């Protein structure tokens, strides 16, 4: 293994087989500068967070200014201006249904809190036994135990833990009439014990970059409401412009009971997530009985530095043409769709906003592909059976074309080396 430090345990990696981990020393715009003087064009915006590009000076200044005043204060027993400003800023860009915000320190924890809210909602209004969740095939909602339980434990990355965590209810995305009928029957069969249905709207990201239509989201929401089940939208990855609108739910008729936000919330600078609830959810926790309070409070929740970064990021969204830039990225990717579909081993090509996905029949050697992209000067990180790009929205046309060119050149190389040889 060639590693920057032998005592660091890296994420999502088999350390014994790890061949190479580049060491980043600086970032700027869409570029990652390495210790060996190589410069990479970033195609995945640091796990889909750096929506404004790296080192946006408006955000950097907001963090520095806040650090001089108060880098952190516990949120239990205190409020502070950055959190109050962020609450106003978020509510100004969200649907009127969303009224109350609980801040946490990561997306996975946000999912945990949304699940706790859903279960406790029913208990607080006097209904017992609704403690299960319906999630979907190819779902991914995080790496903590509760979040893992609503991932796809049949085929997803957490299948190893299938017998050790709470068993939830897994359904297929109801994308056809037959699947819609099947889904409603499934819901009817289990509704007495279901607290909520949880869905990543339009794009199921880390579970394989699967996409579904806005009509599917609307249908699931309607079924949830019909059968008195709460609906949670996980927009941790899709929120803040990624699918072409500020939030994916805007492309549907859906306003969920609970909404989870994260990743790009701070513009790719600091860890922060938000769980946004409707008034109906919030009011169920109001009582003279303290046991009905929401008992959760991460140490770094509503961190002032992160809130300051998020406030700056929302200001940028309001003042600069980010959504137009997303549509331009979508146009550039779509221009390559027919080319990609003709490449060997490609089974599907999908595009939604600033998300481009090339699904291969099977990826035999992820390390080879990842290292080959680095050799080409781009940071593209295939996983499962997909090569995908989710770049920052400020990426220049020539930079995204470098990403797209690299994919077009490397897939045939991969096919000659791994795919055709095994056909």
Name some characteristics of this structure.
423 residues; Aspartate Aminotransferase, domain 1; 2 domains; four-stranded mixed beta sheet; 36% helix; globular
Question: How does this structure look, described?
Answer:
The protein is 36% helix and 17% strand. The chain has two domains: 15-37 and 321-419, Aspartate Aminotransferase, domain 1 (Alpha-Beta Complex); 57-319, 3-Layer(aba) Sandwich (Aspartate Aminotransferase, domain 2). It is an alpha/beta fold and 423 residues long. Helix 2 runs antiparallel to helix 9 (304-319), helix 3 packs parallel to helix 9 (304-319) and helix 12 (366-375) crosses helix 13. The relative contact order is 0.15. The mean pLDDT is 96. It has helices spanning 45-48, 57-69, 81-93, 107-124, 145-149, 177-190, 214-226, 279-283, 304-319, 322-334, 337-341, 366-375, 397-419; strands at 24-28, 31-34, 39-42, 98-104, 132-136, 169-171, 194-199, 203-204, 210-211, 230-234, 258-261, 273-278, 346-352, 355-360, 378-379, 386-389.
Would you spell out the secondary-structure blueprint of this structure?
Elements: E1 24-28, E2 31-34, E3 39-42, H1 45-48, H2 57-69, H3 81-93, E4 98-104, H4 107-124, E5 132-136, H5 145-149, E6 169-171, H6 177-190, E7 194-199, E8 203-204, E9 210-211, H7 214-226, E10 230-234, E11 258-261, E12 273-278, H8 279-283, H9 304-319, H10 322-334, H11 337-341, E13 346-352, E14 355-360, H12 366-375, E15 378-379, E16 386-389, H13 397-419
Parallel strand pairs: 3-15, 5-6, 5-7, 7-10, 10-11
Antiparallel strand pairs: 1-2, 2-3, 4-12, 8-9, 11-12, 13-14, 14-16
Helix pairs in contact: 2-9, 3-9, 12-13
């Amino acid at each position: 293994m060639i590693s920057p430090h032998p005592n660091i345990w890296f994420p999502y990696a088999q350390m014994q087989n790890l061949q190479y981990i580049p060491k980043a020393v600086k970032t700027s715009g869409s570029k990652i500068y390495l210790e060996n003087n190589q410069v990479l064009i970033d195609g995945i915006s640091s796990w889909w967070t750096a929506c404004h590009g790296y080192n946006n000076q408006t955000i950097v200044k907001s963090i520095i200014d806040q650090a001089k005043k108060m880098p952190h204060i516990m949120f239990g027993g205190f409020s502070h201006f950055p959190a109050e400003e962020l609450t106003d800023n978020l509510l100004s860009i969200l649907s009127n249904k969303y009224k109350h915000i609980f801040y946490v320190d990561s997306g996975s924890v946000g999912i945990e809190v949304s699940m706790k809210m859903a279960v406790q909602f029913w208990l607080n209004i006097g209904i017992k036994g609704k403690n299960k969740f319906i999630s979907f095939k190819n779902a991914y909602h995080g790496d903590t135990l509760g979040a893992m339980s609503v991932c796809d434990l049949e085929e997803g990355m957490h299948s190893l833990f299938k017998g050790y965590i709470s068993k939830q209810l897994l359904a297929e995305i109801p994308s056809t009439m037959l699947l819609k009928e099947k889904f409603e029957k499934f819901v009817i069969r289990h509704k007495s014990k279901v607290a909520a249905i949880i869905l990543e709207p339009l794009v199921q990201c880390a579970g394989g970059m699967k996409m579904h239509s806005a009509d599917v989201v609307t249908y699931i929401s309607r079924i949830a409401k019909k059968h008195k089940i709460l609906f949670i939208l996980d927009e941790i990855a899709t929120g803040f412009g990624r699918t072409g609108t500020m939030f994916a739910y805007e492309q549907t008729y859906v306003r969920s009971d609970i909404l989870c936000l994260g990743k790009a919330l701070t513009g790719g600078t600091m860890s922060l997530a938000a769980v946004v609830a409707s008034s109906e959810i919030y009011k169920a926790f109001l009582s003279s009985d303290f046991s009905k309070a929401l008992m959760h409070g991460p140490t770094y929740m509503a961190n002032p530095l992160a809130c300051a970064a998020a406030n700056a990021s929302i200001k940028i969204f309001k003042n600069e043409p980010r959504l137009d830039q997303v549509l331009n990225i979508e146009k550039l990717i779509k221009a390559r769709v027919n080319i990609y579909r003709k490449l060997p081993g490609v089974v599907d090509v999908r595009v939604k906003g600033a998300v481009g996905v090339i699904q291969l029949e099977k990826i035999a050697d992820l390390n080879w592909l990842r290292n080959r992209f680095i050799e080409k000067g781009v940071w593209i990180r295939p996983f499962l059976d997909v090569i995908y790009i989710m770049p920052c929205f400020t990426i220049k046309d020539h930079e995204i074309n470098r990403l797209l060119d690299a994919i077009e050149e490397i897939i045939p190389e991969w096919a000659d080396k791994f795919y055709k040889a095994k056909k």
